[in-house]
Every structure is written in structure tokens, then in C-alpha cells.
From TrEMBL, chain A:
Residues covered by the Thiolase C-terminal domain: 283-425
Known EC number: 2.3.1.9
Organism the protein comes from: Kribbella antibiotica
CC annotations in GO: cytosol
Protein name: Acetyl-CoA C-acetyltransferase
Pfam families on file: Thiolase_C, Thiolase_N
Thiolase N-terminal domain segment(s): 7-274
Automatic annotation (TrEMBL), chain B:
Stored NCBIfam families: PRK08261.1 (NF006110)
Pfam families to which the protein is assigned, alphabetical: adh_short_C2
InterPro entries: KR_dom, NAD(P)-bd_dom_sf, Sc_DH/Rdtase_CS, SDR_fam
GO molecular function ontology, one term from the record: oxidoreductase activity, acting on the CH-OH group of donors, NAD or NADP as acceptor
Family in the record: Belongs to the short-chain dehydrogenases/reductases (SDR) family.
Ketoreductase domain ranges (all copies): 209-385
Protein name: 3-oxoacyl-ACP reductase
Domain of life according to the entry: Bacteria
Amino acid sequence: MTEPRRVAVVAGNRIPFARQDKTYRHSSNSDMLTAAINGLVDRAGLGGQEVGEVVAGAVLKHARDWNMVREVVLGSKLAATTPAFDIQQACGTGLEAAILVGNKIALGQIDSGIAGGVDTASDAPIAVNDKLRNILLDLNRAKTFQDRLKVLARVRPKDVVPEIPRNAEPRTRKSMGDHAALTALEWGITREAQDELAYRSHVNLAAAYDRGFQQDLITPYLGLEKDQNLRPDTTIEKLAKLKPAFGKGETATMTAGNSTPLTDGASAVLLATDEWAEEHGLRPLAYLTHSQTAAVDYVKGAEGLLMAPAYAVPRMLARAGLTLQDFDYYEIHEAFASQVLSTLKAWEDPIFCKERLGLDAPLGEIDRAKLNVNGSSLAAGHPFAATGGRIVAALAKQLDENGGGRGLISICAAGGQGVVAILEK
Amino acid sequence: MTDRYQTFTRTPLGQTLVKNLGLPDPVPLQRWTEGSRVIDGSVVFGGIGETEAGKAIQALLRDIGATFSTATEGVASSQIRPKALVFDATGATSTADLTSLQRFFSPVIRQLAPAGRVIVVGRTPELATSTEQHIAQRALEGFTRSLGKEVKRGATVNLVYVAPDAHEQLDSTLRFFLSPKSAYVDGQVARVGTGPLVGNDPERPLAGKVALVTGAARGIGAAIADTLARDGATILGVDVAQNADALRKVITRLGGSELILDVTSVDAAQRIAAHAHEQYAGLDIVVHNAGITRDKRLANMRTDTWDAVLDVNLRAPERITEHLVEAGTIRAGGSIIGVASIAGIAGNNGQTNYATSKAGVIGLVQALAPKLAEKQIRINAVAPGFIETEMTAKVPFTIREVGRRINSLQQGGLPVDVAETIAWFADPASAGVTGNVIRVCGQSLLGA
């Protein structure tokens, strides 16, 4: 077997993220992912061409979209001969897609590939409940008219109440925000610190738009040119006025301002070998060098639902032979401001690092000036599976602009999971 | 939660029905309030010969300003209803001496005032100098436990075994059993051993002490925090994030500090130790109060249901105690208190997991008491019976009514009754009290 090959991030594209039930309310996952991929194809000049594979996913997906990504490819500007498959790892989907494509490239199985993700909180799949579903399936199996009537007679008024997907953990029935609120309390994360982080996110993303950083990262969609959630004029004072959205009483700190809103959107990144990029007149922006996943037992293991990245990062650092301070940029997905702050505090905590991570010394502090320098999910929004692609593309471009460096990506996901990676140039 | 039946029995109609139908007659218990005296009324003291313990008891009675007379002074004919009867049986060297119990109590027992106190002080049987003495001393338990069922109107009967040369340690224990603080402790046996003499202010016995209370946000835990703070302790309250708001209210009321953590997390003990060292340079009192129930018959018990209860109720106290002792967090003179349950003594239908964990807490006390004595740290446990809390309010009506009535006091206890017993264990003056498991159950029939 040959040595693994370097995996370059060559280009990225996304559509602006829209708030739930706003501009993209009538767009399907397939519509938005197609738009993101077509924008990428245009930018990279790949119209009508084939790439090695397209890997993408959506967290909230209609049952009919069982082969969504392949269908999107067929409806896109890529050659119809491009293979594709769907994946899903909750909010880690987008980054995991990039890792999968990267691994195939590294192993020489493909020379190029597109990783992507899409989610809609507006065009959500609504399902019939289990009882009605069983009745309908029995109806389908019934042979005679009388049998069909008998089956239909089982329907009761309450059976027609549909099941709407909820942003809640099936095993705890608590929403992700409620889980994060508990972790925030355990780590003593203050309202002020959360609002400050949210404020920085808006300021940084607004600045990124102002200096034209987003120009070649975004393709406008349905008339939207910027992320709908971005509030360039927000202030700490405005954020401080919001009422708590998760938890209750005087200990509640999490608001709509320091938690990500439900959002619609899609993203895609192009990964390739150096040779493939050169052949196609493209230039590596950065290289995907390391990745890691981890999961925590939040159900009975007394660990926070969104704390898995705190475990994944040190494992990856150990394999890479790096310390937490060996980075020029940190991209920690802002599911909630408190998630980012809890993670950072955990890495600074000697007891957490010793007892839970098994380390001799804490990972230590990071330079906050290097954190989410172009804004993150609190400002941009977080269409679950689209976040990974947003971060990979933006960090690769930032590293390229910087003339090199190293960046850490950390994404927490439902089910107590975490997906993390390193980009370098 | 209110005991409606008890309220009804206090009405004229209720009293008539209770008397004529022979229904339970739960007399409202007297509880300690700010400014209460240790004993509000006269005390009759008796004994078998002159003993060191007897002298110590009389010295204490003088100290607390109780008007007391000795049985030889013809109390039986007196018009005054004594509030307490205290009998020194340490002088009983053979079974023949037991006659003195009947001679002393029979004439006066009927005169005992409502919510009265009967205390018999004996010599720790295992430490007796002769077989005859051992037998005689052991016999006292049958006497007090039976008398506890005979005295009515909120009176309690308890036995205190004192080790040889430990009579000077009796103070805090007698104060507790005489006072309204022991309102719901009935039919119990306390053991007092030797220890260093601690002269503290009985009004603020815990002044300058730091007390860790797990599960401090609500119910019995909040009552424990209140009571220990009343006695002068600084409270370090611990509870899970779900109860953060309730915990904040407790700590805002009492001062001290809060620590949000799950006692079952792998680093709970380390986190508590670090916080205690940082804020207070250590701890003096540790109350393992955090506990849960997940009732299921064993045939229907799921692994996670079993584990959750064992983890919170037993493994967490075990691990936290081990670490706090090893790390030197608990200072000399410190006191560890476990919360067991009568379910851990008597067993309970649907509570194999809970009862296992609570019996394990008793094991923790018994196993560690001699080992911790070398470090001058004491460990004891309370075993609550039916206590009126949010938890018992959810028990179905009939089971709840039975739980309330099947004890000598014919009513449920209050969280403060558990807390007062814990405060007695926590008191540095209780230096001779270790390895005890005291039930706070109104002498429940269960596990008696």
C-alpha cells in the first residue's frame, strides 16, 4: 500500500443561511444543496465534469429523500456519472462528510470529491404517528373491500395528530438547549460571558462581510445575500435584555441571543489531491490533516450532552503530537455560547483533564483573539448539517489568506457526539 | 404537606370519635424553635446506686437549669407532671438490678407530661466487665423499646449506652434526647464512647465549622442546611444542575457557597475537595444526603434503574468519603453523616435497589467508624422512616396513611427531625458518638 496522500481543501461555497420560516420556507433540502453545489461547480469551473464522489447529508430529512445526494447530483451541473451517498451524524454531518471524502482521497480511492450538508427547519418532515402508520400499512395489505373498511374503522380522531420532529434527545426528552443549560450551570458559565461571545460572533461575521471575505464563499440564493440572522448593529446591552430561553429562575443564563436559532441553508466544499487541483487550474487553500470523533454517555454517565468535543480534541492532539496552543485559529461551532465556554473551561480545568480525560496536566487556555475570527453559528445560524462545510471552507480560506498556519475545528452533535479536525497549510 | 387526619383529631368531634372508636390519636409534636429551652418542665431522675454517669447526668440537669428531683424524694405523690424521666441504669451489674426499672418507672410513668421524654442510660453491653453485667445491660433495650410503645401523647423513650469512662461525653447526646430536637426519634439506642472533651457553645455548637450537604436544594437536604446553619455552620451546598435554582435560593438564604455537580460523576469527589480546600481550607461536616428512588419489583427491574439508585445513594457517598479522607479534606474532629432509611433495615416491597443502597450506607458507617477514629473523624447515619416530603406526598393515599400511622407517634416526621438528628451527630461535642445508626421514624413497626 502506498503512503496516504495529502488532502487539500480547494474551494468552498454555501448559500446564505436563512432563519426558520423566512426566505427559504418553501425550499427543500434538495433545492438548497443543489444551489450550494452548483455555486461551487461554477466557482471551480467544473461544469459538466465528474468528481470522485459527492458525500453529504441532512439531519432532518423526508423519508422520500432516501437517496437525496445522488438525486441532487443528477439535478446539478456536475456530470451525471458522479457517484454520491448520504450520511448523517447530526450536527457533525458536514464535517464528517469532509473527513470521509478526505479519507478516500488520502487512500488513493478518489482524487477529488465534494463534501456537503443541508438542513431545513422550515420544510420539516411531518410524519403520521405509529398507530395511524400501522393502520395505513394494514389497509394496504387488506385484500377485500370489507377488510379495508374494518381496518379504516380503527382510526380514532387522535390518530390523525401528526408527529413533528423535535429538537430533543429521545432518551432524555430534554431539548438540546435544556441540556446545554445544565452543563452551563455545572461549569458556572455566566450570562455576561455568553452574551460577550455572541456579540463577538456578530461583530466578527459582519466584519468578514465588510472586508469581502465572504465573496468567494457564498452564492446568493432567493435574493438573500447575507446570513439572515446576522445583526451587525447588535450590542452587549441589547443581548443582556433578552429573557432566558432555557432553564428557569435566577440561575438561567441562556437566551435566544446566545443560542443558535433554527436555520435553513446548505454548504459544500471541494477536496482534492494537489495534482488534481493543479490539473484543474485550482489552488490548495489548506490541508485536512487530522480528524477525530468522540462520544459521551450523557444519559447515565453524568457528562454534558455537548461535551464530546472536549474529549475528541485531546485525543486528536495526542495523535498529531500537538498542544492546544499550537494553533493560529480555533473554530469552535457555537451551538450555544455556553457550549463553547464550557468546553474551553473544561480544557483549562485540572480536575476535568485528569479525572475525565486522563491527562497529567490541563490542556490550558487558548488565545481568545484566535477564536471564531470570522464569526460562527451564533451570528451565521446553524442549519445542522451545513455547519461543517461552512467552517471548513472559511477556515481554509483564512489559513490561505494568512499565508499558512494551523486551525482547529470542533463541532458538537446530538446524541452526545463530537467531530473535530485540523486544517493546516 | 398537611396531615388532614391529624388536624381532624384536634377538633372536638375528632376527639370524640378518636376516644370512642379507639382511633389513632397523633398528638402534635413539640419542636425546637429559637429560644426553646432544652427541657421545658421538671425532670425526675433515678438510678441504681451512685455512678459516674449518674453524677454526669445530674450535673447536666443542673447546667441546663432543669428543676429535678430524685425518685427517692417521693415524686410519685407530687402533683407536678414531669416533662422527663431519666434513669441511670449503668449501675446494673446483674439481672436482679433490673427490678429497679419497674420500681422507678411504674409509679411515675402515668404522670409524664405530653411530648415527654424518657431516657435510660446504660453501660455499653459489649464493654461490660462481667457476663452478668452484659446480660443485664443488654436487657435494657427490651424495656425501652416496649415502653416507647406504651407512652402516648407524643412522648419518646430512648436508651443511651455509655462506654466506661465516657460519662463526660454524655452531654450533647442527653441534650438532644431531652430536647424537642429529638421529637421524632423514638425507641432508639444510641452509643456513646470515649473521645476528647470539646467545650463549645450549645447554642451555636457548629460555629466556625464548614458543612458539605449533598442534595441541599430541596426537601430533607434543605432542612439539613437550614439546621446546620442555625447551629453556626457555613454551608457548602451541592446539588445537580436541574436543582440549581432551588439551591441558589437555599444558599442565598443561609450564606455559604454552592457547587453544581452530579455526585455520580467521575470527578465529583475531586471537585468537592478542590472547592472545599480553595474556599475553606477543608471541611468539618459531610452529609451524604443526595438520594433517589426508582421503585420497581426485582422481576421488572432494569439494569439502569438498579444502577442509578446504587450509584447515587451508595457508590457516591463511598467514593466521596474515601477521597475526602485520603485528600485530608476532612479535618480532625470532623463528622461524616450518611442517610440510610428504614427500608435499608426492614426492606420494602419494590425497593430492592433502594434498600440495598441504604443498607450499604449502614455498612459504610460500620466499616469506617473504627478506621476513621484513628484520624479523629466520626461517621454515623440517620435512617429516616416516613418523613413528610415532596417524595412521600406522591405515595398513594392508603400506603401514605399506613406509613404515617404505623409508628408509636402515629404520624409522619418532618424533614427538620432528620436534620436535628444530623446536627447532633455533627456537633463536635458529640466526640464520643461514632458508628451509630439512629432511626428517625417515631418508632416505626417496620424493622423494629
